[in-house]
Design brief:
The chain has about 350 residues and is mainly beta. It has helices at about 5-10, 125, 145-150; strands at about 20-25, 30-45, 55-60, 65-75, 75-85, 95-110, 110-120, 150-165, 170-180, 180-185, 190-205, 205-220, 225-230, 230-240, 245-255, 260, 265, 270-280, 285-295, 300-315, 320-325, 340-350.
Length: about 350
């Protein structure tokens, strides 16, 4: 197993941002660190909350704080724990924090890694390869992602391992399970059956090829009968996002009851996400991305967007960013008024 797996697993971020954490304690095989970031911007992303669509306001951009601990158990085993909370930076009130991640993991260099709790799902290691830019990135994988296990899977048990193939690259395997539960999503009470997923990741040189399958039954509160919510997703990448040079990523997903429109899950959809970025030697990173979701049953586009973005590292911990997203609109019954968006702000890593 790749010895870097543990370090990657407990990093302050999974994809799309650099992992920065401050180590507060390291003694006798035990470590403790604090990480996360504070991110604010000016823009019109949440214009629905304002009087006019053109109104400009201050936005928070997924700020978070996390605590990470590891313990060397001997015989090649290392235990780790992570807690991460999103920060309510702009509004007053009682809910200043909400849980993003919370898990306990056990890693062995040869036997692999097991994790229990709310965590980044194996599915996300395939579907999230284009979820990189700060301002505008992937949306379709976040439709009810906690319950469906497409992003941060809630109440999840997972196992992963990597087989090193020498000059032939490496092959990674991830599997996960979520138990039965009832949850209310956008005012609709859904009943989720047992869910399972598997992910395969192959990497050689600067290229990766990936596949994942995610499945489980759901009784949606606003749809008659029990439905199988499943997804096949394929992705590929070239390069490393944010490092000098080019990064290319593409994602193609075939989904059943995994994507929703106005709170109702769609029977069959196809989702596409494409990202191309180029990082200069002066730390300026330019990117363009495209995303669309198609309702296959109706042969209509649910939504389609494209964004141009720039990120600049003033220091390793302070990043400025700006982006403009074009609403390419849906079609047929999904067509609405154009809603282009822009965002400009800064991210400070703790």
């Amino acid at each position: 197993m790749n010895k870097k797996l543990l370090a990657l697993a407990i990093s302050a971020a999974a994809f799309g941002t650099q992992a920065v954490a401050v180590e507060l304690y390291n003694n006798d095989g035990t470590t403790f660190s604090i990480g996360g970031h504070v991110s604010v911007a000016v823009g019109d992303v949440n214009s629905d909350d304002r009087q006019n669509d053109d109104d400009i306001g201050v936005e928070s951009v997924s700020p978070r704080i996390n605590f990470n601990a590891t313990q060397d158990l001997g015989n090649g085993f290392t235990a780790d724990a992570k807690g991460e909370w999103s920060l309510n930076m702009l509004d007053g009130g009682e809910q200043a924090f909400s849980t993003r991640l919370g898990y306990v993991g056990l890693t062995h260099e040869e036997l692999g890694r097991a994790v229990v709790g709310t965590q980044w799902a194996p599915y996300y290691s395939v579907a999230g390869v284009a979820d990189m830019p700060i301002a505008f990135a992937n949306d379709f994988i976040y439709d009810d992602h906690g319950n469906l296990g497409t992003g941060r899977g809630e109440e999840m048990v997972s196992y992963g391992n990597t087989l090193e193939l020498g000059e032939a690259g490496s092959l990674g395997l991830g599997v996960a399970w979520q138990g039965r539960k009832i949850d209310t999503v956008k005012s609709v009470e859904n009943t989720y059956g047992n869910r399972a997923q598997i992910a395969l990741n192959y990497a050689i040189a600067d290229v990766t090829a990936n596949y994942a399958y995610n499945t489980g039954d759901v009784e949606f509160g606003n749809i008659s009968g029990t439905k199988t919510a499943d997804s096949h997703v394929l992705s590929a990448t070239y390069g490393s996002y944010g490092k000098e040079g080019i990064y290319l990523a593409g994602v193609y997903a075939m989904n059943g009851y995994m994507n929703a429109y106005e709170g109702t899950a769609l029977e069959e959809t196809t989702a596409v996400e494409l990202l191309a970025s180029y990082a200069l030697s002066n730390s300026l990173n330019l990117s363009v991305n495209y995303e669309s979701v198609e309702d296959d049953k109706a042969s209509e586009t649910v939504y389609s967007t494209s964004a141009i973005q720039a990120e600049y590292n003033f220091t390793p911990k302070f990043v400025g960013f700006a982006g403009y997203e074009f609403d390419l609109q849906g079609s047929g019954s999904y067509k609405s008024d154009s809603d282009n968006k822009w965002l400009m702000g800064a991210r400070y890593y703790l």
